[in-house]
Structures are given as structure tokens and as C-alpha cells.
Amino acid sequence: MSKEKNNNLIDTITSLAKRRGFVYPGSEIYGGLANSWDYGPLGVELKNNLRDWWWKRFVQSRRDMVGLDAAILMNPKVWEASGHVSSFSDAMVDCKKCKTRHRADHLIENALPDQKVEGKSADELSEIIETHKIACPKCGAKGEFTKARKFNLLFQTSIGSVEGDKSVVYLRGEVAQSMFVNFKNVLDTTRIRLPFGIASVGKVFRNEITPGNFTFRTLEFDLMEFEYFIEKNDWQKWFEYWLAQQQDWLKEIGFNKDNLRVREHEKEELSHYSNRTADIEYKTPIGWKELFGLAYRTDFDLKNHSKHSGVDLEYTDPESGNKFTPHVIEPTFGLTRLMLMVMLEFYYEEGEGNDKRVVLKLHPKLAPYKVAVFPLLKNKPELVKKAQEIFDNLSSEFTTVWDDRGNVGKRYYAQDEIGTPWCVTVDFDSLEDGTVTVRDRDTAKQERIKIDELSSYFSDKLK
Ligand code: GAP
């Protein structure tokens, strides 16, 4: 069966992820917690591989980029200055019958796909819901919604153990602000000069009402983003440059370009900080959805932080001596969302009947395990010993997994399903001639390779 025929791909991926240890429902033994997920042994490898590739490509391989890893809890004044306390909100409605809460724009989009919702006020959204008697997706009741009200997406918590001493702080809703508030620190402590970027990866939190769809929209998620500081007049050039770079990386990962598109935000849709935004969207089984974003944040953030903190966040050009507030282009990459889309993109079902196999055709750099090592028979100590030696050698260089259960055919299929690019089988010939069978995940072809050459064989492939 080809992947196009699998209409329930998100359900299939959710089940594969749970069954094979990529992603588990959060707090499962207590009945779970809506829209929270835990990354299991394979999921954490895949997610880290995406993160590491991103860091290498966009930070370490460039002269104009530096990294930062800042605290999640920040002074609440940060979020006032950034506009998130006043503007980071969604309009919600409650069903009076079944008491469930829904995002007003999502309700309308699902019921009336041609209706534009971007930039509409809570009152305007309510009017559309009432006029079209949109039904509650949970209980089906029509015309039973409350008026839409704005709910802030920032999660609140408090610092201080003594009642009364407590003060409200927010879990960060984006990583970006940590890079703006450290702009001066980075300038003062490095030799970097405009144009340059500060990059960061970490957890962010949003109190969103979400309709499921596995890890697509969650309460907490990993975000990789950078703020690229430029001179105002150059913003269009850098916007186009980073848009191309974001798409290039997706192509390097192996995404089919027909499953990607760029969507420009309309004026009414722009976030409070942005003058231009484009989304890179991916064609999911539930329609085109945002994968990455790119925003021209102007000098909005640095100017506001300068005003609220009283600290000068201007930049002085070392050659001309000109002093100005840099403008910012922000490429943002949802890491957990990218992982979901990678699983959707590279999931294949091939063959029929007994030959049917599920293959995750992940780029080898992303595969949780690069190599699986099998002794042909687990009750033959000489085979196990040789396989163990090979495992020990390879595992110091590549993430390697051991499997000695069932027949070799089943072991191949089990590795295909989790995306392991190569399987090494140690058989009786290996003891005689020092070679092993290496089987390729995508072609299922097998070849004999000298044990001594395995390490360079896989290194070359990974290049
Ligand atoms: N600093 C800009 C910013 O945070 P955003 O479009 O709100 O922009 C960035 O989010 C990226 O984070 C999105 O492109 C998407 O990949 C991912 N994302 C946003 N909300 C998410 C959620 N609730 N769950 C998972 N990923 C999310």
C-alpha cells in the first residue's frame, strides 16, 4: 500500500510511535493529560538528531551565528515589554451544553473552510458562529456557544514559598525574548558584528485548547529559533535569504518539495510584533499546516526592551560610528512539530501479504539507530561473541542496537519500522572469512563486507 492510500496516517503514526517507543501519552498511568506527550527511547534520539543537525547547520557552521541557552523563567517585565501579556491570546467559546471549550477561529475554519478568520475580533468571530449556527464538535449542539472571549496563552506560575511573598512569573511562550534581553551581553562579550544571529533551542509553553492530532499542537513543545540582527534597509534581502535557507534544510532532510509550500500572512493576520510573516507549510493528512515560520520583527523587541528596562540596546557600527537599533529577521522551527512531519513524510508501507513491511525511510543522520547488529543464532556462543565484538566496536562511533530475537527476516522488518538504515548479520561464514552481511533498509539489498571495513563503510555512507 502506498502512503497516499493511508487516509489515517496520523493515527497510524500515533500508534507506531507508542508501540515502538517514539512517543507515549503523557502521565499515561494516571489516565494521561490532554495534549501532553513524552518522548521515549527512540523519540528522544530522533528529536535530538534533528536538533543537532539544526545546531550544526545554522549555528556551528556559520561565522555569523552564536548560541544561547537561557532560563525558562524570566522577569515578568520581559513579557509585558514584549507585548505578550496584552496581545498573546486566542478567542475561545464554551459550549453551554457539554461545557467544552473551543478556539473560535478553529471552529469556524473546520465548519466553513472558505470563511476568512484572520484578524477578526472576538465579537466578529462570535457573529459568524451564531449566524451559521456552527455545531459543537463534541456534543453536536447548535447555537449553544457563549460569546467569544480572549484568553491569554502564557502559562502562569509563582515564585516564593511564603504566602503573600509569591509573585507571578510566566513560563516562556517563545524562546525569542531570551535572545533580545541578552543582545547587549552577547555584543559585549563576543567579537561578533552585524549582521549576526543569536540562536537557541528549548521548551516553550502555551495554554492552548487543541483538537488533538497527536503532537501537532501541544501545551509544551521544543522550539529552535534565531534572531538575526540586521540594518533596517537590508531586511528584504535577509528575509528572502532565510526563507530559502529554511526550505533548503527541509530538502536536505529529504522532504518532497511537492509537500511544501510558502504562505504569506495577510496584514490582519500578522502577530503584534511582525511587519511581514511567511509560513512554510507541509501537506499533512489534515491539510496544509504550518511547519516553520519566518517573521520580520523590525526593531519592535529591542526598542521595547530598551524602553522598559532603561538599558541602551543600540548598536554602534565600528566603521561609520553610526548608532542605531538593529532590525530583526526571525526564522523559527518547531522541533516537535518537525519530528511529527518527518514521521509522516518518511513513513512507507511496501509489499503485500507476508512481504508487507513498514519502513521509516529516515535520512541516516536522523535515524535513532544507525546500525543493528544480529548474531544469526542466539544459541551459538561463537556467533554471539563475534557479534558482540562488532557491536562494541561500532557502538563507540554510531548509535547501534542489538537484536537476537526471532528470525533474521523479522529482525529486518522490526528495524525497518524504526528507520535503522543498516543491519549487520554475523553468520558462520563470518567466523571463516571475516565478513558479515550488511542489509540496506531502503533497497533491502544485502552485501558482504569485511568486518575490519565496517566502520569506514558506515562513516562513508553517513557523509
Ligand atoms: N518566536 C516566534 C514564534 O514562536 P510561532 O509561529 O508562534 O512563532 C513557532 O511558533 C513554531 O512553533 C511554529 O512554526 C510551529 O512549528 C511551532 N508551534 C507553535 N505552536 C505550537 C504548539 N502548540 N505545539 C507544537 N508546536 C507549535
TrEMBL record:
Domain Aminoacyl-transfer RNA synthetases class-II family profile: 11-368
EC number(s) from the headed UniProt entry: 6.1.1.14
Top EC class for this record: ligase
PROSITE patterns assigned: AA_TRNA_LIGASE_II
One Pfam family linked to the record: HGTP_anticodon
Keywords: Aminoacyl-tRNA synthetase, ATP-binding, Cytoplasm, Ligase, Nucleotide-binding, Protein biosynthesis
Annotated residues for binding of ATP: 206-208, 216-221, 290-291, 334-337
Record note on quaternary structure: Homodimer.
Function: Catalyzes the attachment of glycine to tRNA(Gly).
Protein name: Glycine--tRNA ligase
Taxonomic lineage from the root: Bacteria, Candidatus Yanofskyibacteriota
